[in-house]
Amino acid sequence: MANGKIGVLVMSYGTPESMDGIEEYYTHIRRGHAPTPEQLAELSSRYEAIVGGVFPLRENTNRQVAGLQAALDAAAPGRYSCYQGLKHARPYIEDGVTAMAADGIKHAVGIVLAPHYSTMSVGSYMKRAQEKAEELGIQFATVESYHTHPKLIEALVTRVKTAYKKLQDVQPVKVLFSAHSLPVKIREMEDPYEQQLLETSKLVADGAGVTDWQFTWQSAGRTREPWLGPDILETMKETAAAGYKGVLAAPIGFVSEHLEVLYDVDIEAQAEARELGIKLQRIEMLGTDPLYMDTLADSVQDAARAVFA
Question: Where Fe(2+) is bound, by residue (predicted)?
Fold first, then answer.
């Protein structure tokens, strides 16, 4: 290919920029249907509980995009240019691709800030990006998953070991790996999401020397169709009933602190732990850990070499 820059579309679910943006965000998630006042009040109360009116969540993603840019600059100076595209907030995925085209980008790689592939998550991001890229004449390569990348596993192993030490006084402890639930129908589709999560969990557990662990789900949507379970709150009840005194929460399906971590684990699951009389410790999220930034940079470069060489 020519020596032109390769665009990198860094995609994630998205979060409102402030409390004022919650209704627009929720409406987009609901495919243009505005939430009821009760639904809006409930979601707003969750954000209020974790941010207290100050809204740093978008900055987490911005820092990760900047961190990836720095890692790519270190590996291949001047070769890559990162753009952000969000599923449910501005700049939307299509906005990111449009920005690339405006800058004259002809080749791009898409990567999602989620290590595990599902047709319903990463697949849907890539579909939107590829359709817009095709419309604008950009050749588009994709990183579908990076769930077994050695540097990702190393970063997670370190976090599990660090958090586990904080539970030394409350043995026995069970490690609960978790990720965002999806509708059960993905199993009929032979979707790789569940298997990839189990692969990551086993690699991290082995690396950390943990033998007593279980995979569980969290943050299921509230729809009529069944979602993958058991939920972490249910698993915690079973764990406490079995005589465990501590639980180490390792939400490996997420890479930064947002609602599913700060509310679903740090508030909801912590409240459940207090009620059950057990101690809950959560691992630190990946954020801009250099090992995670290198994981993303390696994955982007591998995809570019495979398609644009």
Answer: 180, 260
